[in-house]
Write a structure and sequence with these properties.
The protein has 316 residues and is an all-beta fold. Helix content is 0%, strand content 47%. The chain has no helices and 24 strands. It has a six-stranded antiparallel sheet, with no helix packed on it. Strands 1-2-3-11-10 form a five-stranded antiparallel sheet, with no helix packed on it. A hairpin with a 6-residue loop joins strand 7 and strand 8. The model has no long low-confidence stretch (mean pLDDT 88). Bound molecules: calcium ion (2 copies). The site of one calcium ion (CA) has 9 residues, from loops.
């Protein structure tokens, strides 16, 4: 798994209690992380102390922890809850419907839920940081992608951490828009999606790397695509030649890679004939690898070609 930070804001220790519902973090020790694979979305939350029950480390405290997912306009879409309060003890996904008079309330029924099983779908581990002067802990949890609409996580969203000491509403770490009299919400609990992950390393060569404005040449382009992820990948490489290049050939080429094993490489080559009519340094082409769900998983631009003017050489 490769957790990526989604919240590097400074989140204070001791602003809420007890410590096991106190989300903490800063830029060097991010408060929230996420990861995604073909089956699950994973979240990681940094807490001021151990969220497991004192008298039984195989269980969580009688509280709730979660992630509110909003669109870029700030409208809540879903909430994910690790709900160990009362007799619930489930990881739940709710559609985030809420009414004006109960903006902190959990409304409706879960659209998806699984029993909390520590070590299977919920994990607790030492975080290695010491906010508040004592060790912090990670609470990790995973939810099946099937709980969400198809390709939901391909779109940009805002992710907010929250916590509660009960399973009916959010009453501790409150991200906007959840608030109620006597409680303020905290926009710093929210963050964006992680940067898209490079899974395919693209390396490109162009021969030759020099030319003249008046000279029509044939350039040979090779693209080597290596699967640097730990899963088998299928994807399409789209290579686009610089807009300044004048040619009768196709300036956009597509190459398909199917079921490429981790660590495996594949090479593609093509030739294109034409010229750059103006002098200068140009990035010859730009290649992008895109998977079946339209995620960009690899990118490379260049190399540069240096084009010199023909003027003055006419007389040589
Ligand atoms: Ca806090
Ligand atoms: Ca701590």
């Amino acid at each position: 798994m490769a957790f990526q930070p989604i919240n590097t804001n400074t989140l204070l220790a001791g602003d809420v209690s007890p410590c096991s519902v106190d989300i903490v973090g800063n830029n060097a020790n991010p408060a929230l992380f996420m990861d995604i694979n073909n089956e699950f979305v994973f979240f990681r939350m940094r807490l001021n102390c151990d969220p497991r029950a004192n008298n039984d480390p195989t269980k969580l405290d009688n509280f709730a922890w979660g992630i509110l997912i909003k669109d870029l306009a700030g409208i809540p879409l879903f909430s994910i809850r690790v709900n160990a309060s009362g007799n619930v003890n489930k990881v739940q996904v709710f559609e985030a419907e809420f009414s004006d008079d109960s903006k902190d309330a959990f409304v409706g029924s879960p659209i998806c839920q699984q029993n909390i099983q520590l070590g299977t779908n919920v994990f607790v581990s030492l975080a290695g940081s010491n906010f508040g002067g004592d060790p912090d802990f990670f609470l990790d949890f995973r939810v099946p992608l099937s709980c969400f609409p198809d390709n939901f996580f391909n779109d940009q969203h805002i992710f907010c951490g929250f916590t509660s000491t009960n399973g009916n509403n959010i009453n501790k770490e409150l991200p906007p828009p959840y608030t109620k009299p006597g409680n303020s919400n905290n926009p710093a609990l929210c963050g964006g999606a992680p940067p898209s992950e490079e899974k395919v390393r693209l390396v490109k060569t162009v021969t030759p790397l020099t030319g003249r404005t008046c000279e029509v040449q044939t350039f040979t382009v090779t693209i080597t695509a290596t699967n640097i992820s730990n899963q088998t990948l299928s994807y399409t490489i789209t290579d686009v030649v610089n807009a300044q290049f004048v040619t009768l050939d196709d300036k956009i080429r597509n190459f398909t890679v199917t079921n490429q094993a981790p660590g495996a490489s594949q090479q593609f080559m093509y030739m294109i004939t034409g010229n750059f009519p103006i002098a200068g340094t140009f990035s010859f082409n730009m290649a992008t690898a895109v998977d079946a769900a339209d995620n960009v998983i690899g990118f490379v631009e260049g190399p540069d070609v240096v084009i010199t003017p023909c003027r003055g050489l006419i007389f040589s």
